[in-house]
Structure formats: structure tokens, C-alpha cells
Amino acid sequence: MGFREVIEHPDRYDFDVETVGECLLDSPLAATSMRVAGKAGGYVNGQRVLLTRDEAVLKEHFARYGKTPSLELAGPHAKIYHDPMWARAAIVTCGGLCPGLNNVIKGLVRSLWFDYGVRTIYGIRYGYLGLVPGFHHPPIQLDPDVVDDIHEIGGTILGSSRGEQDVKAMVDTLQRMNINMLFTIGGDGTLRGAQKIVEEIKARNLAISVVGVPKTVDNDLQFIDRSFGFETAVYETFDVLSSAHIEAKGAHNGIGLVKLMGRDSGFIAAYASMANTVVNLCLVPEVPFTLDGENGLLRAIERRWATGKTHMVIVVAEGAGQELIAGEEKRDASGNVLKKDIGEFLVSRINAHFAAIGKEVHVKYFDPSYSIRSVPAHGTDAILCNLLAVNAVHAAMAGRTNCIVSQWDDAPVLVPCRMATIERKKIDPDGPFWQAVLSSTRQNYYFHGEASE
Amino acid sequence: MGFREVIEHPDRYDFDVETVGECLLDSPLAATSMRVAGKAGGYVNGQRVLLTRDEAVLKEHFARYGKTPSLELAGPHAKIYHDPMWARAAIVTCGGLCPGLNNVIKGLVRSLWFDYGVRTIYGIRYGYLGLVPGFHHPPIQLDPDVVDDIHEIGGTILGSSRGEQDVKAMVDTLQRMNINMLFTIGGDGTLRGAQKIVEEIKARNLAISVVGVPKTVDNDLQFIDRSFGFETAVYETFDVLSSAHIEAKGAHNGIGLVKLMGRDSGFIAAYASMANTVVNLCLVPEVPFTLDGENGLLRAIERRWATGKTHMVIVVAEGAGQELIAGEEKRDASGNVLKKDIGEFLVSRINAHFAAIGKEVHVKYFDPSYSIRSVPAHGTDAILCNLLAVNAVHAAMAGRTNCIVSQWDDAPVLVPCRMATIERKKIDPDGPFWQAVLSSTRQNYYFHGEASE
Amino acid sequence: MGFREVIEHPDRYDFDVETVGECLLDSPLAATSMRVAGKAGGYVNGQRVLLTRDEAVLKEHFARYGKTPSLELAGPHAKIYHDPMWARAAIVTCGGLCPGLNNVIKGLVRSLWFDYGVRTIYGIRYGYLGLVPGFHHPPIQLDPDVVDDIHEIGGTILGSSRGEQDVKAMVDTLQRMNINMLFTIGGDGTLRGAQKIVEEIKARNLAISVVGVPKTVDNDLQFIDRSFGFETAVYETFDVLSSAHIEAKGAHNGIGLVKLMGRDSGFIAAYASMANTVVNLCLVPEVPFTLDGENGLLRAIERRWATGKTHMVIVVAEGAGQELIAGEEKRDASGNVLKKDIGEFLVSRINAHFAAIGKEVHVKYFDPSYSIRSVPAHGTDAILCNLLAVNAVHAAMAGRTNCIVSQWDDAPVLVPCRMATIERKKIDPDGPFWQAVLSSTRQNYYFHGEASE
Amino acid sequence: MGFREVIEHPDRYDFDVETVGECLLDSPLAATSMRVAGKAGGYVNGQRVLLTRDEAVLKEHFARYGKTPSLELAGPHAKIYHDPMWARAAIVTCGGLCPGLNNVIKGLVRSLWFDYGVRTIYGIRYGYLGLVPGFHHPPIQLDPDVVDDIHEIGGTILGSSRGEQDVKAMVDTLQRMNINMLFTIGGDGTLRGAQKIVEEIKARNLAISVVGVPKTVDNDLQFIDRSFGFETAVYETFDVLSSAHIEAKGAHNGIGLVKLMGRDSGFIAAYASMANTVVNLCLVPEVPFTLDGENGLLRAIERRWATGKTHMVIVVAEGAGQELIAGEEKRDASGNVLKKDIGEFLVSRINAHFAAIGKEVHVKYFDPSYSIRSVPAHGTDAILCNLLAVNAVHAAMAGRTNCIVSQWDDAPVLVPCRMATIERKKIDPDGPFWQAVLSSTRQNYYFHGEASE
After folding, report:
1. Mean pLDDT (chain D, rounded)
2. Is the pLDDT of residue A314 over 90?
3. Which pairs with CB-CB distance under 8 Å and at least 24 residues apart come from A298-302?
4. Mind telling me how many Å the CA of D100 is from chain A's nearest CA?
5. Is the pTM of this model over 0.95?
6. Which of C204, C212, D188, D451 has the maximum number of C-beta atoms within 10 A of its C-beta?
7. What part of D 279-298 touches A (C-beta under 8 Å)?
8. Which residues of C touch A153 (CB under 8 A)?
9. Phi, psi for C76 (deg, rounded to 5)
10. Which is nearest to A151 in space by CA: A211, A95, A108?
11. Is C16 a catalytic residue?
12. What's the complex ipTM?
């Protein structure tokens, strides 16, 4: 492991969008890009990467910053900042479960241990909460044997939690434990928390790298082609959609209604609908719909029956149609507003509508979210987890901080936290991706009577 | 197929509990009992079977009828009633989906076709509704090629429906189609419907056998050791309980709450809890519980936390704790009483309780029912489907009617419909089965503080 | 745990077939029988059980011993032999993997710990080999936390090995470790090893109970209705048979040939063939077949093609047709006889035959054995594992030794090792079970041209 | 469907590498690229796409052709060649099974039917063989109802075959059936066959488009980023590798040896090894290895034992190490050379070696190939199948021929058959992809003693 010279006095470790990486092409540990097939790798060239292909993102970035974004390529460096002999790492998982959390933990531990020789690795319990001593959750020590089989199990061996914690208390803990690398695995809330931790670290002038592995089962973070866990989640939706299809066909005018994850963006719902082509309607947050009227959902269902078909499968993202429910405020016995679920809302409205017009329908409602997100990552998704973890370790060892690791435009890159958290990625209702969904479901026929079947 | 002589003038085809079967021991098609392992078969002896082992059932039967029940053994007969050359069979599936419906259909078709040479077999669409012409669902014709692969798919290729239909209209249809064998696959509602059809058939003096294959995923019919689909359903609960466990461990004081099928009896919940030993509390309809108080559910959860554990899995049958909800009547905007779900009820009450006492808990709720019941039958459960189907065909061909096929006390028997529908089987809270559940979950410790862990 | 009085001076702890158990009906831990559905339990009555139903077994036993076998019912006893405060248990797994090994280990540990308060439980590594110090595999200590999740993973956390070890060295180890209960999980070789250990223990006059949990994925031990792991193994064969069907249909005259476990008996092959009704021929050790001739396998395949079908699925137990291969001795370069695999043998012979007659066939060969036996137990099979484990603990605590726990005739019993190892259970080619297989596959048509399709 | 004007007299329909496509950006059916996450689509711009990123391919192409390759973007065209009212399509599947075949068939049928209104679609049985009347396999007619559920089933509903057929006879059949679009789903042999069919079509001056959907579960065709079925195949290897791990740990010095598909390239083996990080050695055709010597496989296994580990998982692609076996010619009784399997070869050599040095090892051999390739496509892999199918229909309708559809550099393109079949894609042993495999398995330590663990 002696090929890396430890830099004694780095002048900075918070890289900028202008930073040029110093990736080592010849390293046996060279970062590889995650092309899903054959061509994995190939773009690690020690040069600044100008990412030019997603024009909408580029234009927006230019409008905002007056310059084209360039991101540092991830990968091993010729010189590292932290001395492996003295390095002490901590790993924390935050927010909801997602396939691959344990793969990322395993990848971090193995890369720290085998690639760099780091021997002190802590697992923080229950998210940021575990960094606050008052909650009494002591960290656990991790090594390759402890993590050897965890990639076969869903969830996170560390536990997780949501929400913010006292920043000073957390940095006190890092300082007390002599941590100099903190790996945060979490979503945008986690990244915002990480940014606050970085500010406090800077204020105290500490040498602690904070590197994030972005987690969003909804796959809706900017500057991330594909987030870990997403592919597995889509894969797992297959069986529940088949069940919905079977239930729908089991009854006359049966409707299998499946709610899938996706609070602000409907990527899982959209991918799932294209991956199992039993879906007739796919409802996502980005594409508003109405219940009533000639182009409303209820009319769409009637158009389905009018084709002579007696079964139907509808997929709805959890964040779809929220504006419809807002208009239907419900209160509990104490007068509190009840937040109603779009899935249950649609069940009751579809039932009410067809009861009113005297038409028999049978709605079978599926809400499989927890079952989908608690499985272990498989296939290329599992490989992605490991590559992100390895690149996070390379970044932290080289003294990078306040950044996340990502695959963007098929290249492994480091993205500053502040860029990643600007806003969520969404489906463009006018773009070709949504057109492909429409082409697969043919739902424009049902919603708008377009074309004849 | 000529070894069976067609009886020209049978004096009766509605057998009585006193009936002695005429099973052929030497037949290559001898019925086999469904011992789960090795010893399958062995009890087909051409004699009346005196079923003596389940003493509680025997006593109750004796008290009710003044005699010990004896059931005709199922199996092929030396003489058959219907002439295969002229026989026309119809198959109907009713009620909710259950693993194995398609296996039973396939088994019926293959046995009619290959064992007896029956060539006209109709599949009635959407339950009893398909027997009423006004609904316009013409039957489909079935043969071995049509059903060849259906055992690999869940649900029923015929569709199903619930509820009663006009008996006269249905028998009119049977008569018009010249059906002389009707196979009804369904639960106790279906069997009561079958009894009414039989009465109308008798009133018209028609020669139509009506034989039921009892379907109850809850496994709660009398005189049935094990109903088809049950084993597969229990098997399928494994993964969702593991997911609940992973979600529970993923959060601090996480509770994985899983609602499973079981309106009147908790067999699925109980078996599932023993089959995946991650379950800490199993709640079933037969064992009432309270929320509050020293022995209430909320205190039980607190006792779990008091042991130092920070996660918990609770299984609740859908029919459990209904008396608790009755006391919490809720109404919708129109003033109608809302039937509240025990699962959601527990979620809200657990959350409310711990919010009130300022203790953090995270309830993750799973409602996988449709996904569990829409899978195809596997393993010995699939074998059971086929054996029931074959025995139903033997019974109908021999002129039996108004009965169901069953495995009882490890023997294949015919049970009169009126016996099977007397009342549902339930878990005996004082019996050894429930003790085994308690031993597996150790929930008496949580509910009653019994013993120390 | 104080309700059991420790017996100070037991006069014997090697029970005899005449032994009367002292099971406690009122115990909250009453043993329950493993009826697959509803009626679990009910036969624990503190009386000697006369097992009368399997007449063939009874007759043979009578002929051999001059008396009818009676077996002690398993379950908790009013008085126990070993003092839980001083008890030290050891668990060992031997032979090939089988679904449910880890469930049994978990069940043993939990019952020892929670039911009796035993706090010293060793896991012996790699079978009997781990009891011989020279192999340097120190035991691991087990407690409920260590085994909490192991039931979700196939295999055995202890490792396993085959073959005999030095008996004196093993008993030396038990003595040195102050073990007074040894639980052996293994097949007939393991049980014979256990008997030798018991003899050495007796010779040394030690108070060590040796209780076996019989393991045979082939389900072919005597006095055992159903062995743990069998149901899961059958369940797991479903997908591979469907794959074989798909491959067979993917080619013209495609033959999916699947070799399944079963050295001396064909129960897995037979059950699998009935559970997934895509199988056209099922070949087992108990039913010899020939390759050539009018009733040979090759002619059977030709009869299949003659029906107009262009695909076929054949299941062969690994022990089937060994007599055919014996006649085709092959030797390696060194002149050693090569034991040829029945699966590969059939592939080559089928290919050779059809090549010779100029008929195209495409044989797709599947050998999934390891994949089937390395899964975790599910469903009622998992429940069985736990019940066997609990009853093994009851037996050992009560001072029983030289016996195994079993479900026989639906009752939990203790079977002396010498009875269990007399000979293997086999399929009776003339019995109703094999008739049911023939009825499902309809292979008599292919082999013998019986009946027309 | 009227927005496309039918071109009456196209001057050519065999596009050249210089061809500029006329893709319609504004079409609701615009082709979308298959970025695995979020950014799907975006590159359909009606311009020639200059694919510049894979430098090795570019250099080789330039060296060969003296120009940079440019490929026509796939997608709908403003003008189409075939009149949908008169169009008659045929679909054929050739070669071995692969996940997703039925998805592609379904996608072709639905796009022809719904996007273009083509009403005559034939499914050719058993590959090219079904185009030769002498084999008596009449085609089946396909429509959306026939293919509705086939995506849930592995294999191909059409059947398949390998090998060449008489070109004149096949084109006679196409002509006799008035086919004007032939879709061939198959590998490089199929594409070479398609090229011959095209030549014969040209010679006869027929207007028949021949468009291929390239199938290679090994993912080793040129100009194809990712072939359909590959992702699913990798996903499916997860469980068998876990089984191998469990079996290896179940025995002392246990070796789980898994042979995976990959005759000429080791992509499945390599991806599988990274996706389930239980693999210690990954052997592929592109990286030769020896058995003996300091850097041989046997020494590598010994180095594993020397670390104190007592289990090991080895993955071997079926085409790896062929040069080793060549040197070990074996003959059968008749003197014929036996082609020995690398998997069985390694089993026997590993066993022989360790038997010779008196060290116990237990090799558990897995050969799951057929089980892996006969599953249905899931997740994004299923989406890819559909997109390829849709683009194949667009290409054929626009009069393109002698080409395949592909995703290359994240764009949907048409690749001339002659480019796709130049040579197979292989792993570059010096590239970053293989480095990533080495980093995951850490096998250089075992093979070369590099670094200490």
C-alpha cells in the first residue's frame, strides 16, 4: 500500500467545481464507470470531464452559475491526504431503507481495509442520532469478517433514522472519537445534514473528510444517472404487478391498483409499468390528472371496459394526484386533518363512482412499498453499490470532502453536496421517456380516446 | 376405460353419512391419502372409515346427531353412474383467489379426459354469475391442451365472483347445456349455493351431480385437515415477515406490523408466526386482547423495549381484535359507519400511545394479502390440489352429489355439504397448537410478564 | 423454570421400546404433533402410544421382534434428569446439507435457553470431526442472539463433515468439556456414529444424553413420516422443472432431463413429478427400467413423439437405473473404474440412439441438487424443524438417550436409534403412492403403450 | 396512423453506414435510449450520430474501413416504406434460449399492431427450420391477445433451433406467404443466416425487409452496449453463487465451483462475480490460467487455505481454460475423443491434486446454465426488450433491411449486419473492467501472492 505518498499539508480538501482530479490511469484500482454492459470503464483519463450531453441540465446550470459544470472524476489518487496508519473512519446510514445499503457498507469496509489498510472503522447506529451520545447507541466496530455476508440481507446492519440532530454534538463526537473520515449514506436530507457538519468542521478547523453515497430509491437526485437500489426496486415490482394482473382477471371488471414509491417523481412507477407490460394506466406526480370529466380517471376506466376488456391494472406513485386529495379534506374524531393516501383515496372514489352508476367493479389494492425496499441489491445494481463505495473511499482518502460519489453520463464523478441538493430530478412530461411510458401503457387512448385499439 | 360398468338405474346418488363406499383397492387409479411425507396412501380399504381421533369433533357430532360420524372414502368405484360417452361436465370457481385454483381445474380436466374419456368440459366464467345468461359470459371449452400450463400461474383462468345468484336461472342453464356434473370450487358460501342448486335439481328430478372442492385459504372448514392453498400461503408469508423484521431493525424501536388473512380463524397468522421465528406477538380472532392495561398490547410493546431490544415484529390476523374497533366507531362525511381495518387501527393507536408518552416508535405496516393468495400452488400443496380434483371426478362419475372431497385424518373422504358448512374450524386457545405458537413467539412474557428472558 | 424437580438418581436413561413416557398434558410447553393443517396437536396423552396404522411396518416389526412396536411420545416431562443450572449442551451437524439445519440449531438453542435456562451451549464445528482435538476446530458458543437470524440462511452455521471419527477421542472431548447433552443432527451414518458414542459413554458410566434429530432430505428413514427439509426441497424443485419444460419446448423434440436427489429411494423425484405436472416420465431406484426393447426408455420417448407432442420432461432420481450403468464400465487413464452419473449416462444414450436412427432430439440436462438442498426451510417445514428441536431438548433434559425425535403417524415420538437405522424406507412400486405418480405422469402409456391418449 | 406517407418507389432500403436517418423528433413514438436510470432518451436528434467514445472500436474501424463509423439512429420515420394495410410480418427466434425472447416477440406484435395497424403477423416455429416446408411446422398467427401474458414466461413461444437451412427454400416460403418483413431474433449465426436471406431476396428483387434483434446472453456482440437478457441472467446468478457459498462453508475446506455461460467471453462470469461478492476466483476465456506452478490455480487454492479461511467460491466461464483440456485428451470406449467440460475437468483435477498431497477438500460443483437462461426478463432488461422491438418495427416499416437494432453509447441505433458480426466483444485483461473484477475478488493475491490480506 506504500505507493501513495501522504501529503502533509494540503492547502485544501474541499474541492470546487473547477477542480481537476489527479486520477491515476495506471492504478490497479482505477475507478471504473458503470456502463451496464460490456464497455464498463474507459473514461478515466485524468482529465477534467466536460459533461455535455444532457442539454437541459447544462442550460439550467449555465443560467444559474454562468458557467458549464465540470465535475471531478472519481478514482484513486497518486497522493492521498489521510495516513492510513492513523486513519479512523465512520459510516452512517440515514433515512428510509433502500436495496443495497449493506452492499455499500461492505464495499466501504473492504476498500478501507484492503485497498488502504485502514484498521479502525466504526459503524454509527441509527443515523445521525447515533452521533449524539445522549441517545446511548454506541457505535459498532466493523471489519471484513463482520460484513462478509451482509450483502445477502436487505436493510442496514447499522439501523437508520430520519431527521436532524444537533450539529455541535455530532462534531463533538467525531472529534472525541478521532474520526477523520465520515461516510454518510442517505438522501437529500442527509446531504444537507452533511453540509452542516462540514461547516462546523471547518469552523473548528478539523481535518475530517465528509463524503456521501447518495441514496434515493426514487432515483431522483440531480447529477446522478442511476442511484443504487433503483434497479433492484424496479425488478422487485414485477411480481406484485403480476399479482395485480391475476387479481384483476380473477374478478369481472377487476382493477388491480398498485401504489409504488415516488413522493416527488414517478420514476419507479414509470419503469415498473414498462418492465411488466400488464399496466394500463401509470399515474405519476409530474403528470396531473383529474378524476371526473371526459379526460378524467373514471372516464378512462370506462373506456377500458368499452373495449370489451374486463380487467385493468393501474399503477400510482405515492406522490401522484395529491392536489385531488387536498380538495377533499377529512378530519378525525378530534378534528385533526387526516392525510389521506392516494391509493386508498382512489379505491374509495372508484368504488363510489361505479356504485353510483350501478356498474360492478372490484378494486384490489396493493401497497408493497416496504417489501420492495427491504430486499438486498442484486445484479448490476449490487456492482454499482460497490463501485460507489470504492470511489467514496478514494475520495475521502485523498482529502475530498463535502461531496458525493456518483455515476453521471456513465462516468464516476464527485459532485459537491450543494450541487446535488439543488432540486430533485423529475420526469419531463414532454420528453421521450414519458412518451415511452405512454407507448407501453397506451393510456392516452383511455384518458383521451386517442386512436382506436 | 371400459372397466367400469355404467349403472342404468341407480336408486340414489345423494349419499348419506351412513353410506358405505365401494372403493376399488386394486384400481390403478386408487385414491391416495395425502400424508405429507412418505406414507401417502395406505388407508383405502374399501371399508367404512370410522374417524375416531379428533375427539372434540366426535363428541360434538355425537351430541348433535346421536351417532358417530362416518364418512365415505373417496376414490374410484367399480360401477359408475354417468356414461362417459355422454357425460358433460362444468367447472366453476367462486369467491376470493387462493393458491392452487388452476391446479384443481387442471386436475379435474385431466382426470375427466384421461381417466374417464369425458370430452365435453365447460369452464364457467366468473363464478355462479357465469351460470346466469343475463350477464353474458359464455363458458369456455376446456381440454388437456388448454390447461397444460395453467398450474404455473396464480389465480383462476375462469375468473370468479362472490355472492348468490338466482337458483332457478342457474339450473335452467345446466339443463339447457345438458350438464350432468358440476364441480364447484369455493368456500362455505359456495357450498351453501351448491346445496340450493342440488335442491332445485332434486325438485326437477334431474341427474346432475354437484361435487365441491372446498377452498379456504384460512384452512378453517370442518372435516378438512388441510385445505388446498394453505401450505403455499404460509410459505409465501416467509419473505414478508423477513421484510418486516428488516424494517423493524432498520429503525430505532421499529415495529414491523403485518396483517395476514384470517377473518374468523387465525391459522395463517399462527402458522406464519411459527414458520418464520422473527415474530414476537401473534394476534388472532380466537384470542381476544386489549390495548390498554397491564396485560394490554401497548404494555406488551413496552415490555419488549424493557428487555433492551429495539425492534419487534407483530402479526395480526385480519379478524383479530374486531371488538376493539367496534368501540371506536368512525363515520365518513355522509355519516356512514366506516369499517376500520385492524391493521391501520393498531398503527394509529400504537403511534398515538407512544407519542403521548413521548417515546419514539416507528411502525412499518404490511398488508400483503393479495400478493400471498395470487401465487400458484407449489410442493405438496400442488399435489393435494390434484388429488382432490381426481377424487372429485371419481365421486361425480359414481353419481355422488351434494358433497365435497376432503382429506380428513389423512384419508381422502367425501363430506356431505351440510356437514362441511356447519361452522368454521377455529384455533383452540387452550389446546396444544396455540401453546406451540406461544412457545415460539414467547408472547406470554410480553403480555403477562411471565418468566424472565 | 422451577416446576421441574431434578431426579437425583435415575435408574436408567436409555429408554426401551416398552418405556412409558411421563408427558405432562398440562404443561404450557406440551409437545404438539405436526399435522400439516388445523388439527396440530391432540395426541399427547401421557399414555403409551400404540402405533397401529402402517400395517406393513407393524408386521415386519412383529416378525423381527415378536412384539408390536410402541414408541414413547415426545414432550416435556414432570421430572427432568439434568439440572439446568449445571447442564452443558453440544450440538453437531453431520453429512450433506439439507434445508432446515439452521432452524433446528436455532430451535435447540432457544429451547435450552428459554425453556430450561441452560446457559452453556456449544456448537461443534464440521461434524464429528470437530470433536477430535487434532483437527483444531474449536467449538463456538451459542446463545439466542447468535442464532437469531440463522433460520433465514441455508446450510449450517456449524459446518459439517461426513465419515466416522475415533469414538474414544470424541468421548474424551465430551468428558473434558463436561458436556452432558449431545444433539446430533444427521442421517443414518450419523445415527450409527451416535450409537457408538453411546456405547462408549455407557462403558465409562458417564451421564451424557445423546439425542438425534434425523436428517434425510430423501425422506427415507423408517419411523419418520416426514423428515425436515423434505417439503422445502420438493417446493424448490418446482422452478427447475418449469425451466426444463421451457427448455424442452424451446427446441423441436426437446427433452428436459432433470436429475434429483434420491440415492436409495425416489421420494423427492416422485413428489416433484406430482407437484409440477409437466413431468412425463419419473424414474426412481425402486422401479427398474431398461433402455432398449419395447418397454424401454428409448421406446417410451418414441411413443411420446408419436402422440404429436414435440417436447418432454423426464425426472430421474440419482440412484435410479444404476444396474444399467454397471453394465457399461468405464475406466479413466489410470485404469480406475469411473462411476458414471445416471443423468449424463441417459443424456449420452438418448443422444446416441436418436442419432443412430436419424431422428433429431435435443436433450437439456439439469442437475440442481446442491441448489435445492442449500436453501433455508420455509412454511410448515420450518415449523417441523422447531418442533423436532424442542422435543429433542425435552428428551435430553429428561435423561433420554440413544434415540431420535420423530413425527410418526402424526404424533411426536422418540425412536431408539437402533430402530431408525434398520433399513431405509422405499417407495412400494405396487402401492397407491406410486400409482398416484403414474396417474400424474401417465408414463405407463409411454412405457407400455397402455390406454390411448 | 395516417401521418406517415407511404413511399411508392424507394430507391433503396439497404442503408449504408453513411446513411442519414430521418427520425422524427416530434413523433409521439420517438425512440428512447435505454439509459438505465432517469435520463432515458434525449439523443434522438434527426442527425447522424458520430459515436466517438469507445476509442478502441473507433481506431479498429478506421483501420479497417478508412473512415469513422457512423450509425443511423433508430426510431420512427416521417415516411415509411411498407403500407401497413398490406404489410405481412413474420417473426423467428433462433439459437439457445435467453431471458426476454417472449418480451421481444410481444413488443414486435404490439408495435406492429398498435403503432402501425399491421394485422397479419406470423410466428415461425423452431427457428429457420420453420421456414422450410419439409419440416412440417406451420406458422402460428400472432395478435396482441395471443401475446398478452407471454412476457411472464421464459423461453420462446415459437420454439427455436440452431443451424443453417436452405436459403432458397426459406425465401420461397417468404415469397409464398407474401411476407414483407422478417424479424430475426438470434445471435451471430442467425445474423449470418439473415445476411444470406437478404442476398437471395436481392437476387430475386423482392421488397422484404430483414431486421434483426440481436440475442447474446453472453453480451459479447460488437456495437451493442448491452444485449437483452444479460442483466436478468446476471441477476439470476445471485442465488446460485449464494448456494455455492453456503455449500462451501458447510464443509471443511469446501470449494463451491460454479460454471457460468460464456463460450468466448466471460462477461456473465465477471459481472456475476462482482454482483455477489462471495467469489474468490473468477476464471474467464480472455485471461488464460494454468493449473500447476507457483501462479497456477492449485497453488491459488492453497494460498486461500493459508490465510486461515476454510471455504472458497470459484466461478468459471464455460469457455475458460480450454487450452488446458486440449492437452488432456480423453477417449471413450469406441476411441472417440471426449470433449471434456471445464467444470468437471477442474473438479477432477482439484480433487486429484489435494488427494495426492493428502489435504482434504470438498468440491461442490454447480452447472446452472439452463436454469439461468430460461427465466423471463425483469426490470430494465424487460424494458430494453420492448424498446429494441419497437425500434425494429420502425426500421422495417421504413424499409430498412440487413441491419440489427441496438443500444450503443446509450443511443438506439441501427447496425448493419456485416458490422455486428465482424467479431465478438471480449473482456480486455488490461482494461479497467477486469481490474474492477480483480479488485472485487482480490484474486491476484491468491494467484500471485500480491499484497497481504
Report:
1. 82
2. yes
3. A298/A349, A298/A350, A298/A353, A299/A447, A300/A443, A300/A446, A300/A447, A301/A255, A301/A350, A301/A354, A301/A361, A301/A446
4. 11
5. no
6. C212
7. none
8. 149, 152
9. -70, 150
10. A108
11. no
12. 0.84
Grid coordinates in use for B391? 377424487
Stretch B123-136: mean pLDDT = 94
| Residue C312 and residue C248 in contact, taking contact as beta carbons nearer than 8 Å | yes
User: Where in C95-144 does DSSP place strands (E)?
Assistant: 120-123, 140-141
Using alpha carbons only, give the angle D405, D407, D412 rounded to the nearest 5 degrees: 70
Nearest to D241 by CA among D266, D262, D258, D260: D258
What's residue D1's pLDDT? 28
Asked whether the predicted pLDDT for residue D46 surpasses 70, the reply is no
Q: Is D117 on the interface with C (CB under 8 A)?
A: no
The grid cell for C127 is 461434524
* Biggest CA-to-CA distance, chain B: 79
Please answer whether residues D77 and D70 qualify as being in contact, where contact means their C-beta atoms are separated by less than 8 angstroms: no
Of D220 and C315, the structure prediction assigns the larger pLDDT to C315
Share above pLDDT 70 across residues of chain B, in percent, rounded to a whole number: 79
Average per-residue pLDDT for chain C: 82
Strands (DSSP E) found in D191-263:
209-214, 254-260
Please say whether the beta carbons of A362 and A255 come within 8 A: yes
Q: What would the pLDDT profile of B54-104 be if each residue is shown by its tens digit?
A: 444 445 555 655 554 566 778 777 777 888 888 999 999 999 999 999 999
Say if the Cβ atoms of D276 and A1 lie within 8 Å: no
Minimum-distance CB partner of C247 among D310, D333, D370: D370
Q: Which of D148, D149, D218, D367 is catalytic?
A: D218
- Cell 488432456 found at: D328
Give the confidence band of D24 by pLDDT, cuts at 50, 70, 90: very low
Determine the Cα–Cα distance for residues D226 and C303; give it in Å rounded to an integer: 43
Rounded distance between C-alpha atoms, residue D366 and residue D346, angstroms: 12
Query: Looking at beta carbons, which residues of chain C come within 8 Å of B277?
Result: 103, 106, 110, 151, 382, 386
Assign residue B75 a region (left: φ > 0; alpha: ψ between -120 and 50; beta: otherwise): left
What pLDDT is attached to residue A158? Answer: 97
**Whose CA is closest to D124, among D105, D139, D144, D106?**
D139
3 state DSSP class of A371: helix
- A203-206 contacts at long range (C-beta below 8 A, 24 or more positions apart): A204/A171, A204/A175, A206/A171, A206/A174, A206/A175
In the structure, what pLDDT confidence band is assigned to residue A10 with cuts at 50, 70 and 90?
very low
Query: Using CA atoms, how far apart are residues A58 and D39, in angstroms rounded to an integer?
Result: 13
Contact assessment for residue A93 and residue A375, using Cβ atoms and an 8 Å cutoff = no
A11 touches chain C (CB under 8 A): no
Cell numbers linked to A106: 461492505
Residue C100 banded pLDDT, cuts 50, 70, 90: very high
Residue A343 vs residues A195, A272, A362, A369: alpha-carbon distances, Å: 35, 17, 15, 12
CB D197 within 8 A of CB D171: yes
pLDDT at C222: 75
Amino acid identity of A15?
F
The set of chains that have 3 or more CB pairs under 8 A with C is A, B, D
Is the alpha carbon torsion for B233, B234, B235, B238 positive or negative?
Answer: positive
Calpha distance C391→C71 (Å, rounded):
14
pLDDT of residue D342: 94
Q: What pLDDT, on a 0 to 100 scale, did the predictor assign at position C321?
A: 93
Which chains would you list as touching A if contact means 3+ CB atom pairs under 8 Å? B, C, D
Cell of B88: 358433460
- Domains for chain C: give ranges and CATH numbers: 4-227+377-420 (3.40.50.450), 230-374+429-448 (3.40.50.460)
Q: Each residue of C35-61: pLDDT tens digit? A: 222 222 222 222 223 233 344 444 555
